[in-house]
Amino acid sequence: MTASAFDQTERLHGLDGLRGAALLLGVVLHASLSFFPAQIWIVADDQKSVWASGLFFVIHLFRMGSFFLIAGLFAHMMLKRRGVMGFIKDRMIRIAGPLAAFWFPVMAGIVAVLVWNASLMGLTAADAPPPPKYNWTNIPLTHLWFLWVLLWFYAALLIGRAVVARLDRAGRLGRGLDRLAGGLIGPWGPLVLGAPLALALWFEPNWIAFFGIPTPDAGLVPETSALVGFGLAFGMGVLLDRRRDLLKRMEIWAPVWLGLALGAGTTALMLSGGPTPVLTPMTDPASKAMTAAAFGVATYASMFAVVGLALRFWSGHSALRRYLADASYWVYILHLPLVMAAQVVVKDWPLVWPLKLAIVVVGVMAVCLASYELTVRHGFMGRWLNGRRVPWRKARVGVPLVAE
Question: Exposure pattern of 364-393 as b/e (b: 16+ CB <10 Å)?
Fold first, then answer.
């Protein structure tokens, strides 16, 4: 079944699967950090490889952009279905609630692993640097930053929708937005969307090019480039929900976008240091401009490509993909302290780094999925995080789409 066969009420299995994959790839992403050629992570493995940093680069290029595009589509769909108050209630429960509930336990787990790792290295409290001074510009949101940024985008969606409804009673602006969406779904789309992101990256004062869009995980006000980069993806998702017919076109153009992503992504990688990435801010204006342009195009080309491919090959129902998509939220919330702990355990083992990476990823996934099955899926937490609870004895059957 292709994307064009779906109406507004059916579950978009391809996009739901891709959303889950984007979150689960976060486990691989963070697990790869300890194997970077240069130490950038608190846990440094004795095995180093440029292939590990290359793996990180590829995943990081498309992962969160794809997630925010799908989040925008599902958010607009939910807003239409439930209305403003129903939408706000649901997002406060399922997005703001987990951020508030899990931030402290996750942070405590991270700190515990840091203390453990330091003790294994023979360090004491006297060796620790002075604690940072936290304020609204310096709060470690950890990997849960995406929940905070989603709340920004939900607020922008509600405000934008209210403004359009007030000023566009004749519907001309809405029709213009629909035409804009249609114009962006083609080989030129990543070029158009990439331009404002490239400009924002160029103006970013301490931009480390290898990491593309800066991760807004260290303050309550996200960086401008993150708001632009992820905000355009979220907005594109909103427009796609208005124009579901464009999903079929995304399937068709996916190979072209994939080729564009490979070309622009390779260029961005080479300009940011190549096999051994440069992990310091870019200072030369000309080099920074070229690198930012390459990242702008590569980000949206890769995002469009994986969305089109997911619609093409994952449009049918799969019990396994559905299960993993449901579990991915819990896995992502839980995974980071576990990944760090596993990295500490394996860092001195006399094994090649791909095997160590596999051990960390498989081990963490096993723990997270077991805890999901035993403590989340069939109880109140399943309804809280996934919008539904699956009774223990209930057979797995097709269910209506649950947004986000």
Answer: bbebbbebbeeebbbeebbbebbeebbeee
From 156, 159, 107, select the one nearest 134 (Cα to Cα): 107
The single residue listed with the structure tokens 């949101």 is 141
Confidence of residue 128 (pLDDT cuts 50, 70, 90): low
Residue pair 225/204 in contact (Cβ under 8 Å)? The answer is yes
Tell me the C-alpha distance between 36 and 58, whole Å.
14
d(CA 401, CA 292): 37
Alpha-carbon span 272 to 288, nearest angstrom: 9
Of 18, 13, 140, whose CA–CA distance to 68 is shortest? 18
Q: How far is the C-alpha of 103 from the C-alpha of 127, rounded, in Å?
A: 27
pLDDT at residue 372 tops 60: yes
The residue-averaged pLDDT of 335-355 equals 95
Predicted local distance difference test score (pLDDT) of residue 129: 66
- The strand ranges marked E within 125-202 are none
Query: Token pair for residue 3?
Result: 């994307």
* For range 350-360, the mean pLDDT: 96
Nearest-10 crossing angle of helices 50-91, 285-313 = 70
Rounded average pLDDT over 359-364: 97
CA triplet 30, 31, 32: central angle to 5 degrees? 90
Distance of alpha carbon 44 from alpha carbon 284, whole angstroms: 30
* Cβ–Cβ under 8 Å, residues 356 and 349: yes
Alpha-carbon gap, residue 96 to 88, rounded angstroms: 10
Helix axes 224-242, 172-184, angle to 10 degrees: 100
Residue 157: pLDDT over 90: yes
Q: What is the pLDDT of residues 286-335, one digit of tens each?
A: 999 999 999 999 999 999 999 999 999 998 888 899 999 999 999 999 99
- Provide the angle, in degrees to the nearest 10, between the axes of the packed helices 145-167 and 172-184: 130
72: nearest Cα among 143, 19, 24, 26: 19
DSSP E strands: which ranges in 149-222? none
Q: Which of 350, 383, 337, 397 is nearest to 113 (CA)?
A: 337
Task: Domain ranges for the chain, please list them.
Answer: 3-386
